[in-house]
Specification:
The complex is a heterodimer. By secondary structure, chain A is an all-alpha fold. Chain A is 71% helix and 1% strand. Chain A has 13 helices and 2 strands, in the order αααββαααααααααα. A two-stranded antiparallel ribbon of chain A has the order 1-2. In chain A, strand 1 and strand 2 form a beta hairpin. The radius of gyration of chain A is 26 Å and the shape is globular. Chain B contains 11 helices and no strands. Chain B is mainly alpha-helical. Chain B has 2 domains: 43 residues; 233 residues, Orthogonal Bundle (MetI-like fold), CATH 1.10.3720.10. The termini of chain B are far apart. The chains are: A mainly alpha, B mainly alpha. At the A-B interface, helix 1, helix 2, helix 4, helix 5 and helix 6 of A face helix 1, helix 3, helix 4, helix 5 and helix 6 of B.
């Protein structure tokens, strides 16, 4: 080691400043990072204002009737988005009905029952589902899922429940059902990943206590672990809902794109995202374009509210672990 | 009493089996999709597929060279724009993010993370395509960057936070200014993790279609000008899959296989980078 010359300390000032983080370079560094970080809130503001400004003509023209009338006539200049709002909600909820049991099952199996060596690989494979591009899901849906639904799923379904209004009409393929099933597959990895982190955050003592009282392993999970993480699990499901609401390509390719409100899941429907994807480039009049922007604005506001709700719920359960941000 | 015990055991066993079955189903879906991609796409992957441009509708042959190059350019440019902003924001959140602004930025990032990509697409249209007067690859890259930043910011933050506090204290005690501590010690220690975040971010946007529909638009010809419309694999798949020709469908499967391979490669590279970090930690 070299010896440090023991001259009288001439300027201890800079070091103290360095520690307090108040020298020029530090302030520059902090300023630069802050400026970058400010971009995100600014971006959000720009996004909202841009959408609102572009949607304003339609908002002023149609008011609230935009949301609950169902005539969409670009030629006459009359726009009502009720069918696509309905279709968006219907397809997302139906997707949740399919995806939630599946995803919760995956999460519970991976945290509670699976052998240790199996957990990481299976979790990785399920998360890979989230890596598949939406358009690839759409392609697979058109050429594999729809034929499968047509030959294997729909005939027995119809034989059993064909008398209900939910399964009436002819099944051509592109339908609410096809869109919902593909959505379900797409949101499973998100719900499963967040649920898994939530369940992992449940203290071991919850399980031990239940098992110590003589509960079976399933009873321990169902009565002690799942209720403990309930808020987080609900958050996971809502997060999945947010994904489903805004999903575009796969749904556009499978849902049939018809402006219609119907109860039958075998019939074509429409979603807000699909309407924008399909019609934006052919919107010839300013009012038409503005109506599509209003659809975009509604979609954006709904997903923001849904996501914010989910985040708050998840943060409440697993604060500090930044649950979900890794998977999402 | 005994019957009840048996019933409880049976329920437990049955439910265990059920959740195992559900997990199997989820993995099965992945295997089926990847399997179909290989089965239907692999046979079309030949030299001309990678080196030729699309031929007019109805003719057979042709390839997607323009789409492959276009994907590389658009995604690469998106990375150039999005990665520095995302990493910088993440560093801010980890280093200075304990105050109110940090809370706001974090929340906005999480909210933007769930924004539908199609909404980002029309936003980019109003901001870039409309003022410029024509569609451009650049607008597509910006849209993809917007999607990339919030995710990257949160991943970076999380990874930087994992760096032990003692490292920071040691560096500061040695008289390092804060900015050097942050960049040379903290960020460098977390480098593998940050690289992982970048790879995942790029992988996620590489397959995006919706934000490109009204920005990059697509292009039947070979183009490398970022100020003009450009084709990507995802746009090509969309057009071919929804078109009427069998030849198009064949090419769509092949293009999907290539795109999926690209995304998987990035995901696996990301996983490999994480392994490196864990290896180094021990």
């Amino acid at each position: 080691m070299t010896t440090v010359p023991m001259e009288p300390v001439a300027a201890p000032e800079p070091r103290w400043r360095a520690l307090r983080g108040s020298n020029l370079a530090d302030r520059l560094y902090r300023g630069a990072l802050t400026a970058l970080a400010l971009l995100l809130p600014l971006l959000l503001l720009a996004l909202v204002s841009e959408l609102a400004v572009s949607a304003w003509p339609a908002i002023r023209r149609f008011g609230l009737s935009f949301v609950w009338t169902s005539v969409w006539d670009p030629v006459a200049g009359i726009f009502g988005a009720a069918p696509m709002i309905f279709g968006t909600l219907a397809s997302s909820l139906l997707a949740l009905v399919i995806a939630v049991p599946l995803a919760l099952g995956v999460a519970i199996y991976l945290t509670e029952f699976a052998p240790k060596w199996l957990r990481q690989p299976v979790a990785f494979l399920v998360e890979l589902l989230a890596a598949i591009p939406s358009v690839v899901y759409g392609l697979w849906g058109i050429f594999v899922l729809i034929p499968f639904l047509r030959t294997v799923v729909v005939p027995p379904l119809r034989a059993a429940l064909g008398w209900t209004p939910f399964l009436s009409g002819v099944f051509y393929g592109n339908s609410l059902l096809a869109g919902s099933v593909i959505l379900a597959i797409m949101i499973v990895p998100y719900i499963a990943a967040v649920s898994r982190e939530v369940l992992l955050a449940v203290p071991v003592s919850q399980r031990e206590a239940a098992l110590g009282m003589g509960a079976t392993r399933w009873e321990a999970v169902w009565t002690a672990v799942v209720p403990y993480g309930r808020a987080g699990l609900i958050g996971a499901v809502i997060l999945g809902l947010g994904r489903a609401l805004g999903e575009t390509m796969a749904v556009t390719m499978l849902i049939g794109n018809r402006h219609d409100i119907g109860l039958s899941v075998l019939q074509p429907a429409y979603t807000m995202a699909a309407a924008i994807a399909n019609e934006f480039s052919e919107a010839t009049t300013d009012l038409y374009l503005s109506a599509l922007f209003e659809v975009g604005l509604i979609l954006f506001v709904v997903t923001v509210v849904v996501n914010a709700m989910a985040r708050l719920l998840i943060w409440r359960v697993a604060r500090g672990t930044a649950v979900g941000s890794r998977a999402l | 009493m005994n019957a009840r015990r048996w019933r409880r055991r049976l329920t437990s066993g049955g439910m265990t089996g059920l959740v195992a079955l559900l997990s199997f189903l989820a993995v099965l879906a992945l295997v089926l999709i990847l399997g179909d991609l290989v089965v239907r796409g692999a046979s079309s992957l030949d030299w001309s597929f990678f080196t030729k441009n699309p031929v007019p509708a109805g003719e057979s042959g042709g390839g997607v060279a323009n789409a492959i190059v276009g994907t590389a350019i658009i995604v690469g440019l998106a990375g150039l724009i999005g990665l520095p902003i995302g990493i910088g924001t993440g560093l801010y959140l980890a280093e200075y993010g304990s105050g109110r602004l940090g809370w706001v930025v974090r929340f906005v990032a999480d909210v933007l993370n769930g924004t539908p990509s199609i909404v980002v697409g029309i936003f980019a249209w109003t901001w870039l395509v409309k003022p410029m007067g024509h569609f451009s690859a650049l607008a597509g890259s910006v849209a993809l960057a917007v999607l990339m930043v919030p995710m990257l910011a949160r991943t970076t933050e999380e990874i930087v936070r994992l760096v032990p506090h003692s490292l920071r204290e040691a560096a500061l005690a040695l008289g390092y200014p804060r900015w050097r501590t942050s960049l040379r010690v903290i960020a460098r220690t977390a480098l593998a993790g940050i690289v992982t975040g970048c790879l995942v971010g790029v992988a996620r946007v590489a397959g995006e279609t919706a934000p490109l529909l009204f920005t990059a638009l697509g292009n039947l010809n070979f183009s490398t000008s970022v100020l003009h419309p450009m084709q990507t694999l995802s746009l090509q798949i969309y057009v071919y899959a929804t078109g009427p020709f069998d030849e198009w469908h064949r090419l769509a499967w092949a293009a999907a296989l290539v795109l999926m391979g690209l995304v998987l490669l990035l995901s696996l590279a990301a996983r490999w980078a994480i392994r490196q970090r864990h290896g180094a930690a021990r």
